[in-house]
Amino acid sequence: MAYPPSSFSTPHQQSIPLRAGVVGVGYLGRFHAQKYARLEGVDLVGVVDSNAARAEEVAQECQTSAQTDYRALFGNVDCVSIAVPTQLHAAVAQDFLAQGIDVLVEKPLTATGAEGRRLVDLAHEHGCILQVGHLERFNPALRSLTGILTAPRFIECHRVAPFIERGTDVDVVRDLMIHDLDVILSLVRSPIVSREAFGVPVLTDEPDIANVRLRFASGCIANITASRVALKRERKMRVFQPDTYLVVDYGAHTIRICRREPAAGETAMPNLSFEERTVGGEDALEEEIRAFLHSVQDRSTPLVSGLDGLQALEEAERIVESLEIP
Fold first, then answer.
1. Which of 1, 156, 210, 232 is 20 to 30 Å from the Cα of 39, by its Cα?
2. Taking all residues of the chain, what is their mean pLDDT, rounded to a whole number?
3. Cα(130)–Cα(102) distance, rounded to whole angstroms?
4. What is the model's pLDDT at position 1?
5. pLDDT computed for residue 109 by the predictor
6. Is 127 in the same domain as 270?
7. Does residue 210 contact residue 225 with C-beta atoms inside 8 Å?
8. Distance (Å, whole) CA 90 – CA 175
9. How far apart are CA 241 and CA 234, in angstroms?
10. Rounded Cα–Cα distance for residues 226 and 178 (Å)
């Protein structure tokens, strides 16, 4: 897979900066607004939230205007980040795309694959950039695998976290597991031929812990566990390929590499080398927004396009449909 450069520069200096807006400035949207406000070559025109007090608070913090109706941004922005609840992604994003405004929408792309397909088609129809906020693709630990990860044969992912109310408008597959689905689908460019999935509702009416085993036509197998009822937070991926074992810790921004080295003689046991790398110094959300702005400016395909987001969402739907719940 082709990864982006180690860092994205700000958009080229222009006489007129790109005009941006943020719709939905709750927990994550607030961070989007802060990034736009700090970047050069970008004018944060306004922030929007149905909660007027919250919109005003973030607007004052970012020195921009506050609105409660996102339609106030029509004609005034070139691009927008959408961080409203998942159930509203389709309605809000399609209104901006219909206005010819480029969109960065938080994951999952939409609540359903059918809605996601309509967004992708609408973006194509209006010549708009549609990027999906699968933030892990901009994690420096994952990006550091370039040139190391070549032929994955077995992938194991654990993404667990303590329970919080935010994000529970969808099941754990579309809330947490979809991050790993997106990453794995970007690494294993091969059709999925079978899936075996299990899930258990614990604190909500939707599955709060789920496990799936995916088998690809290439022979690669992925085992993915996601839980939002854990006692600690963990985001790790382990990858096995011929002669190499890799451990990616997304949270700690580290990778561990175990390699089989050539044996000294024909009967000698293979030598193993171990290496641990700490990678950091990059703000994944800022990198994601920089990449979006470059796509807006250069009209280039985003690293995580609408089609990528749709692919992850549709697989998440298949998993949910096949979940065995004891």
1. 1
2. 91
3. 6
4. 34
5. 97
6. no
7. yes
8. 16
9. 23
10. 9
| Cα-based distances in Å from 303 to 69, 101, 173, 207 | 30, 18, 22, 30
In 3D space, the residue among 73, 45, 48 whose CA is nearest the CA of residue 58 turns out to be 48
- Provide the residue count of the chain: 326
Q: How many angstroms separate the Cα of 16 from the Cα of each of 13, 19, 76, 213, 265?
A: 8, 9, 13, 50, 66
Residue 147 in domain: yes
Number of domains into which the chain is organized? 2
Q: How far is residue 240 from each of residues 172, 249, 260, measured CA to CA in Å? A: 26, 15, 12
Cβ-based neighbour number of residue 211 at 10 Å: 18
Least Cα distance to 146 among 246, 71, 54 occurs for 246
Nearest-angstrom CA–CA distance, 197 and 324: 6
Give the residue with greater pLDDT, 97 vs 263.
Answer: 97
User: Which two structure tokens, joined as six digits, stand for 252?
Assistant: 């700690």
Distances in Å between the Cα of 127 and the Cα atoms of 44, 97, 99, 158, 233 are 22, 9, 11, 37, 40
185 and 275 both lie in a single domain: yes
DSSP 84-153: S-GGGHHHHHHHHHHTT-EEEEESSS-SSHHHHHHHHHHHHHHT--EEEE-GGGG-HHHHTTTTT-----
Residues 318 and 183 in one domain: yes
**pLDDT score for 268:** 65
Quote the pTM value.
0.89
Q: Which of 137, 64, 101 is nearest to 291 (CA)?
A: 137
The DSSP output letter for 170 is S
CB neighbour burial string for 174-198, b if at least 16 within 10 angstroms, e if fewer: bbbbbbbbbbbbbbbeeebeebebb
